[in-house]
Design brief:
The complex is a heterodimer of chains A (about 425) and B (about 110).
Chain A: E1 6-8, H1 13-19, E2 32-36, H2 40-52, E3 57-61, E4 66-68, H3 73-77, E5 87-89, E6 96-99, E7 103-107, E8 112-115, E9 120-122, E10 125-128, E11 132-134, H4 158-169, E12 175-180, H5 190-205, E13 210-215, H6 223-233, E14 238-241, E15 249-253, E16 258-261, E17 265-267, E18 270-273, E19 277-279, H7 281-286, E20 310-312, H8 326-344, E21 354-363, E22 366-377, E23 380-383, E24 389-390, H9 397-419
Parallel strand pairs in A: 1-6, 2-3, 2-10, 3-6, 10-20, 12-13, 12-18, 13-14
Antiparallel strand pairs in A: 4-5, 7-8, 8-9, 11-19, 15-16, 16-17, 21-22, 22-23, 22-24
Helix pairs in contact in A: 2-8, 2-9, 5-6
Chain B: E1 4-7, E2 11-12, E3 17-24, E4 46-53, E5 56-62, E6 72-78, E7 83-91, E8 96-105
Parallel strand pairs in B: 2-8
Antiparallel strand pairs in B: 1-3, 3-6, 4-5, 4-7, 7-8
Classes of the chains: A alpha/beta (about 425), B mainly beta (about 110).
């Protein structure tokens, strides 16, 4: 069967001109929606748009040929899973024009995206799903070069493997120091799941080692569940230093692998620096990010509050009460697609209701979760009272084991839906 | 009373401007909140912070209910002579917690 997928690569500016209609020609009957970013948010949105309205021309701009998923990547760096299990291609994206280029500029007034090869693409509506960018300016001493020595592993891929290899090479009795940023950041329970799985690895392979979490916060997601599990599974192995105990990292020195806090410094054998973050670069360039570095949006349509015609979904958006997670990104992307399709047909967009669930593995076969339901209220996405919750604190091991298998099922389901 | 953290450089040159940091773990309860039983939670805040250097008070601050829990105070001093830098936090009950650190000035 002939594929409707259009692949543009290489120096294909002329091909692009032939394939992408000039504004006006087909725009009346076939409005073009351009999606930038092929992660959970962008890929979900592009696919939802083609499913909702076959007459839409949907273009997805993504530089990478494969996507490495963050959920479960903590299991990779603890040696429990291969990176292949995290890697997804875009082969099933029939009906979507995939462009393997980097978007470098957005002209919101003329509704046009500029690519790194100089090509312009017109859009009726633009969806930005750039995810996060590490905010190196917010942490003195930390930059792309320092990340090769003190990995962040907060974008899955080579960084995940680098951190895994550092842990593998560390001698028994070493100190792992993990620094966690202040809110908001990608995957709120992530640093603590990571600490748990690193502790699991250390307990099994390097039992004389220690893990210190330097935290810029005094509280974190699923805290009581994590702390109870640490007490039970890894007594004495994990030390959590909250903000009020001087846990905020103010500077790092890759030459000595030292993390300085407001009141002291910690020398690490393996350092995992999770730095402050902000919306991905194209959001900053397009003028949809505010002074916080994140993108304010309308909670019904996900349209930017700063630039008309541009929608923002996923980690880059200010999701109100919604956490920055793959599940949230997927839910927001689908709601945004519904709104975009309605707006293009000049229909009133429906009020969305969104769900998020975040599973965390504390050890293999030991899962915990938090779930929430969200809807627009007072211009933000607000949590529906009493609709969500966290795993019970006193649950028996069978429940933890079930939750760990639900986590696997969830990952298979969502990656199947988004990339399958 | 509570755990206090300070950061004082161990050494400094004479005339150098050094940054001093101090934080105390304290709830800074405003007195305006109600507990789950409907009764108001009594006020409990740090009222005064003072820093002494070389036997003299060089920095002080009055604190009020609007200030956050675990108040963090940073300020600068001119290093003049070797000696103890002392920190004192006084709460509503009049109790004072003190900490000190030595700074060698050359």
């Amino acid at each position: 069967m002939p594929s409707r997928r259009v692949l543009l690569g290489g120096a294909a500016a002329s091909v692009a001109a032939a394939v992408l209609p000039s504004p006006g020609a087909r725009a009346q009957t076939q409005p073009r929606v351009v999606v930038i970013g092929g992660g959970f948010a962008g890929a979900s949105c592009a696919r939802a748009l083609t499913r909702l309205d076959r007459d839409l021309a949907v273009t997805l701009i993504e530089t990478e040929t494969a996507y490495v998923a963050c959920p479960f990547s903590n299991a990779v760096l603890a040696g429990l899973r291969g990176i292949e299990a995290q890697t997804f291609g875009y082969d099933g994206f029939d009906g979507i024009a995939l462009i393997r280029k980097r978007a470098v500029a957005v002209d919101a007034e003329r509704r046009r995206v500029r690519l790194d090869d100089g090509t312009d693409i017109d859009y009726a509506r633009l969806v930005l799903a750039p995810g996060i960018e590490l905010n190196f300016e917010a942490l003195p001493g930390y930059d792309a070069a320092a990340a090769e020595i003190m990995p962040h592993a907060w974008k899955a891929g080579p960084q995940t493997l680098l951190l895994r290899d550092r842990l593998t090479a560390m001698p028994d009795g070493g100190t792992v120091v993990l620094s966690a940023p202040a809110n908001p950041f990608r995957c709120p329970p992530g640093p603590y799941e990571r600490a748990s799985l690193i502790a699991h690895y250390l307990k099994r392979n390097k039992p004389r080692s220690k893990l210190i979490i330097l935290d810029a916060k005094d509280a974190f997601s699923k805290q009581r569940l994590f702390e109870a599990a640490w007490q039970k599974l890894y007594p004495g192995l994990i030390e959590w230093v909250p903000l009020s105990a001087g846990g905020r990292v103010t500077e790092v020195d890759p030459a000595t692998q030292t993390l300085a806090t407001e009141f002291g410094s910690h020398k690490a054998d393996v350092a995992n620096v999770i730095p402050p973050q902000r919306a991905g670069a194209i959001a900053q360039v397009a003028g949809v990010a505010d002074r916080t570095g994140w993108c304010p949006i309308d909670p019904v349509t996900f349209e930017s509050r700063l630039q008309p015609g541009i929608h923002v979904v996923g980690d880059a958006a200010i999701g109100g009460a919604m956490p920055k997670s793959a599940f949230s990104a997927n839910a927001q992307a689908k709601a945004c697609a519904v709104a975009v399709a309605a707006l293009l047909r000049e229909r009133e967009p429906a009020q969305p209701k969104l769900i998020n669930t975040c599973y965390s593995l504390v050890a293999p076969g030991y899962g915990i979760s938090i779930a929430g339901v969200y809807q627009p209220r007072d211009g933000l996405l607000a949590e529906v009272e009493g609709a969500g919750g966290v795993s019970p604190l006193d649950a028996p091991p069978e429940v933890r084991e079930l939750e760990a298998s639900y986590a696997e099922d969830w990952f298979r389901t969502i990656t199947g839906e988004v990339f399958g | 009373m509570a755990r206090a953290l300070i950061n004082v450089p161990k050494t400094a040159r004479r005339g150098e401007i050094v940054e001093i940091r101090a934080m105390i773990a304290h709830p800074m309860e405003t007195g305006y909140r109600m507990g789950t039983n409907g009764a108001s939670i009594p006020r409990d805040i740090i009222r005064r912070f003072a820093c002494g250097y070389d036997g003299e008070e060089v920095f002080s601050a009055e604190l009020f209910p609007a200030m956050s829990a675990n108040p963090f105070i940073a300020f600068t001093l001119v290093a003049t002579a070797s000696g103890a830098i002392t920190f004192a936090w006084t709460d509503d009950a009049g109790e004072t917690q003190t900490v000190s650190a030595e700074m060698a000035v050359s």
